[in-house]
Amino acid sequence: MKSVLEDIVNASPVIVFVWKEEDRWPVEFVSKNISLFGYTPNDFISGTLRYSDIIHPDDLEMVTDEVEKHLESGDEKFNLTYRVLTGKKDVRWVEERTMIHHNPDNTYYEGIIMDITSRKMEEKKIIDGALEMKKALETVINASPVIVFLWRAEDDWPVEFVSENITQFGYEVEEFTSDKLVYGDIVHPDDIEKVRQGMARCVAEGNREFTKEYRILTKDGNVRWVDERTKIQQNDTGDVTYLQGIIVDITERKNVENALYLEEKRHEALLKLYAMSDSSIQEIMDYAREQAVSLTESKIGFLAFLDETETNYAVISWSNGKQSSDKAPAESYSIWDEALYHRTPIMNNEYLTDKDTDPKLIQRNLSVPIFEGGRIAGIVGVANKGQDYTSTDVRQLKLLMQGMWNIIQQKLADEELYQYMEDLKKSSEIKSVLSDVIKNSPAVVFIWWAEEDWPVEFVSENVTQFGYTVDDFLSGKLVYADIVHPYDLKRVQNELAKRIDAGQTDFNQEYRIMTKFGDVRWIDERTFIKYDENGTVTYLQGIIVDITERKHSDDFMHLQYDLDSVLSSATSNGEIFNRLLDLALKITPLDSGALYLVDDKTGDLNLVAHHGLSEQFVNSTSHYERNSVHTRLVMSGQAVYKHHSELSAITTGKNLRYEGLHGTAIIPIRYHNEIIAALYLSSHSEYEIPDKSRHDLETIAKQIGKVLSNMHKEASAQKEISDLQILIDNVKEGITVTDKKGALLYTNKILEKWIRYSADELKKMDITDIYPLRYRHVLDSVNKPINQNRPYSEDIRLYSSTGREIPCRVTFKNIKWNEKDCILGIYEHINTSATSIHDT
């Protein structure tokens, strides 16, 4: 029986041990199948090895502690799992099951160990996979604003699973998983059909992915834009079973895109208004009213100016063509009068008309007062937008109308102020009259003494728009030169001196001044120079008008002009890239940066131009691979504005030399929704890129995208021409193109080889130079009326430069070459002997 048991044990994976309770556990007995680990029983019984010698060094302390703990606790048996080393030093996992025996003389252990390495590896795979999946899910699900969905492929997509952050839209998970709601219930009614059709088309075409941007409704009824990206899952038979995807809230991005578009449209409108200096006030009003309708996507527009009492409309512009310069009571236009009475913008998105009017005339409306100081100077109103009016509409109307009002006031000031001052300059009431005329105008009136730095004799009260008080100047604490920008002061002084030396009576100049708060403002000064009877200048009287917004628009137009001239004057791609970068760096306060192109094949970013950066920095940032953080930041499609240290920490992963960069912009460059390049721009002086500069940069980036796209198209076209030339040069027929007088305009390589002339020699020749006299009638036949519209062929011979005659069959055809009437000749060699023309 003992022999049978030993055979069973030795044939099994279970190894039997008897250990002594001594240092390092000497072995009293071990079964023969210890050979599974590369040992023999004698290795242990002889004392050459003790059991602790084969326990993995990293596990030995743990095993020792566990054994001692069980001994101290008086346990009779215990189980352990740990690693051992085989005779070949391979690592194997074992499970030990041991019983403790206590005798009066000693303590020993009886136990078995089993190799569980395969099980451990499987467990590790499962655990690693679970951990990896858990980590991935946590990253995707818990990182707002990504919301994970698993939809069943049924009508309007019932929800099998949704992540808990669906609460950001006001919903609970249970509302979907309990089938109280299907996903289609929260898609905006105006978008649901587009989403259904898009998904159906995607499935029908066999696509495995579906992407769509559309609107959803939150639980409290608000509208949010989302970007859906979904994987379409199919079973073994190809039927769609589930849709697994994510939605991301992109409302802010959509709002920014819309805001940028509206800002650009408003800038264009203001530029047009500034250019309407010769137009009437009614024409300016009509244009401003049309732009108000366009900016707010409305159907109806109303614009009116009020008289001084704020009770009568003095000038009115209607979108239906109604105009009036006669006074009309404000209450006769009651649809707009709430803004007048409440002195604040009024939005009405649930407007109901009176019963005696067409109920479809007005669905919603917005009216905004136009202020001049504390007085309401006018009302602008719009109506019947396709969706609710918002604060963005209010802002656009305010800015547009304030710009229009400033233009009208400047126009009035230019036309009337000079006459007022001439009529009243000797009157003791000049100050009060001037104050009444312009106290609420953007034009600030000055009278300066013709002395150094221009002490101020008079200034209108509205100088407060620049932070100063009248007393600041009249008390002598400030002279006018104190507020002129230091960089412009010398120029203004020189220009005025030139006008005076020339005996001129007027002086116009645009320059910068400093407000009391340190801000820089551009102003337009228009001054009359006053002389006494001896021709000596006594004083200067004039106005200054804040033109900062117009100047900003003008500067931006110059940048646009510079962009248009880049391609026309540059001689190489490298020069174009450098000029595009220089153009972007004209935006204040940027002074350094780089331009990168996206590689069409690899998706990597490659630096093509740089400015204001050290060589070491450029070398370290000249290339970013497709999967780098840097490239992924660009390919997200969003402009990024941060301090350079923040961007450097998350993108480079390198210890770059300190470059002294602060405010930094990363701006993707698109063309037709494809990101083709990126601008990386920084300032050494400013810690943040101003909002105004951000708008300009993103607009310039759009234009640069067009330039780069055109470069790509031209390069492709040039390659096509080159390929075509290679094709023509390798045909077996000779080719000529001549004008109607016979001058050779083009010959291909094979013809040049036949007749032994170079291309340059042939361009100076006439086609008759290569025709023997007896064949020149052929050339005349081509232009006969009967042959004008069809090919003409005949066998002829050509003269080579060596005097040899070459037999050919020529076919002539009338063609257009560089938009001129020309003749195409195709010459096919006729073999009259065994010797080829290519051998002669």
Supply database-style keywords.
33 strands, six-stranded antiparallel β-sheet, 840 residues, single chain, disordered C terminus, 23 helices, alpha+beta, seven-stranded antiparallel β-sheet
What is the strand and helix layout of this fold?
Layout: H1 2-10, E1 14-20, E2 27-30, H2 41-45, H3 51-54, H4 57-73, E3 77-85, E4 91-102, E5 107-115, H5 117-142, E6 146-152, E7 159-162, H6 173-177, H7 192-204, E8 209-217, E9 223-234, E10 240-249, H8 251-274, H9 281-295, E11 300-306, E12 312-318, E13 323-324, E14 328-329, H10 337-342, E15 346-348, E16 365-372, E17 375-383, H11 391-424, H12 430-438, E18 443-449, E19 456-459, H13 470-474, H14 486-501, E20 506-514, E21 520-531, E22 537-546, H15 548-569, H16 573-584, E23 592-598, E24 605-611, H17 615-620, E25 623-624, H18 629-635, E26 640-643, H19 644-651, E27 663-671, E28 674-682, H20 691-729, E29 734-739, E30 744-747, H21 749-755, H22 759-763, H23 777-782, E31 792-799, E32 805-817, E33 820-829
Antiparallel strand pairs: 1-2, 1-5, 3-4, 4-5, 6-7, 6-10, 8-9, 9-10, 11-12, 11-17, 12-13, 12-14, 15-16, 16-17, 18-19, 18-22, 20-21, 21-22, 23-24, 23-28, 24-25, 26-27, 27-28, 29-30, 29-33, 31-32, 32-33
The description of the largest β-sheet is: 7 strands, antiparallel
Task: Using the CA coordinates, give the radius of gyration.
Answer: 44 Å
Count of individual helical segments: 23
Mean pLDDT: 81
Structure write-up:
It is a single chain. A hairpin with a 2-residue loop joins strand 32 and strand 33. The model is unreliable at 321-332, 353-359, 426-430 and 834-840 (pLDDT under 50). By secondary structure, the chain is an alpha+beta fold. The strands form 6 sheets. Strands 11, 12, 13, 14, 15, 16 and 17 form a 7-stranded antiparallel β-sheet that branches. Strands 25-24-23-28-27-26 form a 6-stranded antiparallel β-sheet, sandwiched between helices. A 5-stranded antiparallel β-sheet has the order 2-1-5-4-3, sandwiched between helices. It has 23 helices and 33 strands.
